[in-house]
Design a protein that fits this description.
This protein is α+β, with helices and mostly antiparallel strands. Helix content is 38%, strand content 18%. It contains 17 helices and 17 strands. It has helices spanning 3-9, 30-38, 100-111, 221-225, 230-237, 245-260, 266-294, 299-319, 341-364, 367-373, 381-387, 391-395, 403-406, 427-448, 505-515, 520-530, 534-538, and strands at residues 14-15, 23-24, 47-55, 61-68, 75-82, 89-91, 114-116, 156-162, 168-174, 181-185, 197-203, 206-213, 328-329, 332-333, 470-478, 481-489, 497-501. A 5-stranded mixed β-sheet has the order 1-2-5-4-3. Helix 7 (266-294) packs antiparallel against helix 8. The longest helix has 29 residues, at 266-294. It is globular. In the C-terminal section; belongs to the complex I 49 kDa subunit family.
Length: 539
């Protein structure tokens, strides 16, 4: 079923305004429409990019579903809603895409929409005793006093089904098996790379289930954005994946610029692309450092930090920031590049290419790295796509998902670089993808650094920016995968809804698939190879 077929054959289907081309589909035919798209023999929509919960006021509560075919690259977006605000129900699509298992829980957590047929309707980020649904427009901000008592996690979860008479039936499911020994890892454990907690079911030393518990640093960024002007929202992206700060803000700026009809100069596109690639190298060097440290190696940890500090010095001269980057602005960048920027970048690239062989000599061929990473934590290509694991994790399974190739932005269409993929699907492949991507990022920068055109570094914009009505989207290839932005505008100076596609949420969900059947000690290596960053997940 193609996009035009949906509009022609589904009664009541209509296209919504905006660059996303979202199609409104009646609730009663939504699941069969989604199933037809997923199983289309010519262009199966096997990649569910995102599910975004929505409160459309009088129209009701619902969600927007962004889908893509990995075979043809064709994309389609559907939206559906229920007018029942007291007991809002939507059909689950977790039977079609595994990523819906966690993303529907996110929608339930913030909007109270129950997905019939979903096997695990628990809160995801908030406490299980939280009152209300925070992203609804009618949410009472004073409904939850500060609680300092410990949260008790439930041993059972609910699956909701509709009976033939239209009533709702709740079925209890055990979260862990009766004979499972359940241990906690985190939220303070250093190998969880942030405030992440995992409840782990064990049979002896063998992992039977991984249940992630999220939200320890949830800041309500998407809710806050609804009361901020568009320029004010930019500061929020820098604090998501702090190792993709340039890239995340780039995506938001592009989304606003597309909607507002703002055209940036070629100089800006070159600068943004170079900064994005320096940020990718910065992130992958930290990935290397943390992974080897989790394996017990100290010297390579200092290698990665030594070269990363050089990148941060370059950033600081131009942007004023080291970890948090406030550089991209709507219409360009906050200031022109430093006079020594190009020279220092070229010197750094030359230095990095000389020392990278040392990284491999000390760790890549090491017997400990080989034993603990090779053949460990297998994620098949089919599972990577169904779970929505983009970035290096998906490419290590042979899935070509690079946004820079699929939907070129900046000046990526003007440079030659390889999309690194492996087919061994293990932790070692996830490690090697990122190490090889460092080399490709150097290639991209080398092609651009001496060819930055003259021109404005920022175009003038109106002091108050209002976007046309509609749903607007953009995406970039961040350090950990596809980072997406969705804005629904009602023509005001503030967004009606602004949502960020977390690169790490699918990666945390994949830990259950990756770790089952492996020893508890393997979880450390597997988690390090996946490379999630918790603030990006919690938002």
């Amino acid at each position: 079923m193609k996009r035009d077929d949906v509009l022609k054959t589904i009664k009541g289907a209509e296209e919504c305004p905006g660059n996303a081309g979202v199609i409104k589909v009646p609730l009663e035919v939504f699941h069969q429409t989604a199933e037809a798209l997923r199983n289309d023999p010519q262009s199966p929509m096997d990649f569910l990019r995102d599910i975004v919960g929505m409160d459309w006021g009088e129209e009701g509560l619902g969600a927007v579903y962004f889908m893509e075919s990995t075979a043809t690259g064709e994309q389609i977006a559907l939206r559906t809603a229920t007018a029942d605000r007291e007991t809002p129900l939507l059909p689950t699509v977790s039977d079609l895409w595994k990523t819906a298992l966690i993303k529907e829980r996110e929608v339930y957590d913030f909007f109270g929409i129950r997905f019939t047929g979903h096997p695990d309707m628990r809160r995801l980020f908030l406490r299980e005793d939280w009152i209300g649904w925070p992203l609804r427009k009618d949410y009472d901000m004073n409904s939850n006093p500060l609680r300092l008592d410990n949260e008790i996690n439930a041993d059972f979860t609910k699956e909701y089904r509709l009976r033939k008479d239209g009533t709702l039936e709740g079925i209890d499911h055990r979260i862990f098996g009766e004979n499972d020994f359940v241990v906690n890892m985190g939220p303070q454990h250093p190998s969880t790379h942030g405030a992440l907690r995992m409840r782990i079911g064990l049979d002896g030393e063998v992992i039977t289930k991984v249940d992630p518990v999220l939200g320890y640093i949830h800041r309500g960024i998407e809710k806050m954005n609804e009361s901020l002007t568009y320029p004010q929202t930019l500061g929020m992206t820098d604090r998501l994946d702090y190792l993709s700060a340039h890239q995340s803000r780039h995506a938001l700026c592009m989304c606003i610029e597309k909607a507002a009809g703002i055209e940036v100069s070629e100089r800006v596109k070159y600068i943004r692309t170079i900064m994005d690639e320096l940020q990718r190298i910065d992130s992958h060097l930290l990935f290397y450092s943390c992974l080897v440290l989790d394996m017990g190696a100290m010297t390579p940890f200092f290698y990665g930090f030594r070269e990363r500090e050089m990148i941060l010095d370059i950033f600081e001269e131009t942007t004023g920031g080291r970890l948090i980057q406030h550089y991209n602005l709507i219409g360009g960048v906050q200031d022109d590049i430093h006079p020594t920027f190009c020279q220092k970048v070229k010197e750094f690239i030359a230095h990095l290419k000389k020392v990278l062989p040392d990284y491999h000599r000390i760790f890549t061929g090491n017997v400990i790295a080989d034993t603990r990473l090779k053949g460990v934590g297998i994620l098949s290509k089919e599972d990577a796509i169904s779970l929505g694991c983009t970035g290096g994790t998906g490419r290590a399974a042979g899935w070509k998902n690079d946004v820079r190739k699929r939907m070129p932005y900046g000046v990526y269409d003007k440079v030659d670089f390889k999309e690194i993929t492996y087919d061994t699907c293990d932790s070692f492949a996830r490690y090697m993808v990122r190490m090889d991507e460092i080399v490709e990022s150097c290639r991209i920068i080398e092609q651009l650094i001496d060819n930055i055109p003259e021109g404005e570094y920022r175009v003038k914009t109106k002091p108050i920016i209002k976007l046309p009505e509609g749903i607007w989207t953009s995406a970039v290839e961040a350090s950990r995968g596809e980072f997406g932005v969705m804005i629904e505008s009602r023509g005001d100076k503030t967004p009606y809804r602004m949502h960020f596609r977390s690169t790490g949420l699918p990666l945390v969900q994949a830990m259950d698939t990756l770790c089952r059947g492996w020893k508890f000690a393997d979880l450390i290596a597997i988690g390090a190879s996946v490379d999630f960053v918790i603030p990006d997940i919690d938002r």
